[in-house]
Design goal:
Blueprint lengths: L1 H19 L2 H9 L12 H11 L3 H9 L3 H10 L7 H9 L4 H10 L7 H8 L5 H17 L5 H14 L5 H15 L3 H15 L4 H14 L2 H13 L1
Helix pairs in contact: 1-4, 3-5, 4-5, 5-7, 7-9, 8-9, 9-11, 10-11, 10-12, 11-12, 11-13, 12-13
């Protein structure tokens, strides 16, 4: 009975997505290098609002993912329950990542709230698949922003993952690595200092991708605005 109800709900959601989709949004996806074989062209803002209305439903999330539609999979980020995610399910979802937007949405709105986040950051950082490896660093960036409890030590240790992956010159991997480095560096004054050391070392590297990552991170981490935010945050503690 539950399966029949979910099938009906999925059909209703897909119908709504089809009506809300547009060629303009699909063209916009292409401009941002979001490659999806099945897409309606619905904005992320609309999907986020839909997710809030639907609420958490693990079974529905799995059924939406199985459709293969880009927007249905994006909805999974807002509908699935992070507390009920298993490590095996996270691996299965990550293997299906076929563009950076799906990867980042699940890492930033779902995976980073899972108790398995830190183990997956470590495990995925050495994976060969481009979007699984990017997921490691998108997830690290998400945890750095959203986790208000974890002390600095694990984040400082994560900088070795950044250095180890810095020689990967694939576009979506190196951008993910830079994102993680910048996010860790903006978490606290102590991590800012550590991230600057890492960024400067990478910027001086003979490896083009490492050099790009280091310089990209430094452009943000060395700004006065970042330093002011960190000083204010430190003063409030």
């Amino acid at each position: 009975m539950r399966t029949t109800a979910i099938d009906a709900q999925v059909a209703d959601i897909l119908g709504h997505l089809k009506r809300r989709g547009s060629k303009r949004n699909r063209d916009g996806m292409a401009r941002y290098a979001i490659v999806a074989p099945k897409a309606f062209g619905v904005s992320v803002g609309t999907l986020r609002d839909m997710g809030k209305r639907i609420g958490k439903d693990r079974d529905l999330a799995a059924a939406l993912w199985a459709t293969g539609w880009y927007e249905a999979r994006m909805l999974t980020a807002f509908v699935d329950d992070p507390d009920r995610l298993t490590a095996a399910r996270m691996d299965r979802l990550a293997r299906d990542f076929d563009n950076w937007a799906i990867c980042d949405a699940l890492c930033f709105h779902l995976f980073d709230r899972s108790p398995h986040a830190w183990p997956k950051i470590e495990q995925w950082s050495t994976r060969r698949e481009e979007f699984v490896k990017r997921a490691s660093f998108a997830l690290l960036a998400g945890v750095a922003l959203h986790d208000k409890i974890t002390p600095d030590a694990p984040f400082k240790r994560s900088l070795r993952l950044v250095e180890r992956a810095a020689d990967d010159d694939r576009n979506f991997v190196k951008k993910g690595v830079s994102w993680a480095l910048r996010s860790v560096g903006e978490r606290s004054e102590g991590l800012h200092t550590a991230a600057l050391v890492t960024a400067r070392r990478l910027a001086a590297s003979s490896t083009p991708s490492a050099r790009w990552i280091g310089k990209d991170a430094l452009r943000q981490l060395e700004t006065a605005a970042v330093r002011r935010r960190l000083a204010l945050r430190s003063a409030r503690r």
